[in-house]
Structures are given as C-alpha cells and as structure tokens.
Amino acid sequence: MRTMATRIVWKVLAHAAIIAALYVAFSIALALGLQVHPMFGNLGLAMVAVLCGVYVYLGFIRRR
After folding, report:
1. What pTM does this model have?
2. From CA 57, how far away is CA 59, in angstroms rounded?
3. Alpha-carbon distance 10 to 59, whole Å?
4. How far apart (Å, rounded) are the C-alpha atoms in residues 16 and 24?
5. Using one digit for the tens of pLDDT, what is the confidence trace for 28-56?
6. From CA 45, how far away is CA 59, in angstroms rounded?
C-alpha cells in the first residue's frame, strides 16, 4: 500500500516539474521574441509546442 502511494506522489511531482519547465521554456521563448529577434521567438514557441505535444503523448496517451 505504501509503495503505491509513493509512486503516486513521485508521478505528481514529476508532472509538476515538467509543467514548470515548460512554463520556463515558454517565458524564455517570449523574451527572445520580444527582446532579441521575432524569428527566435517563433522558433522557441514552435519548440515549446513540440515539447508540449511530446509531454501529452508520453504522459497521457501512451500508457505502459
């Protein structure tokens, strides 16, 4: 019973860390687009979209 609860806690923490990392990547992409060059911002947003898609696919759609 305890191992199941531990696994759930680790999964929740992993999802929270991934969402926080995606938020940071999104913020950096916006900063690049506003302060450096709009093309870099567009590339950054495209990468964030790809990373979000990979996260949704690996985290929710494809189950082990």
Report:
1. 0.84
2. 6
3. 13
4. 12
5. 999 999 999 999 999 999 999 999 999 99
6. 20
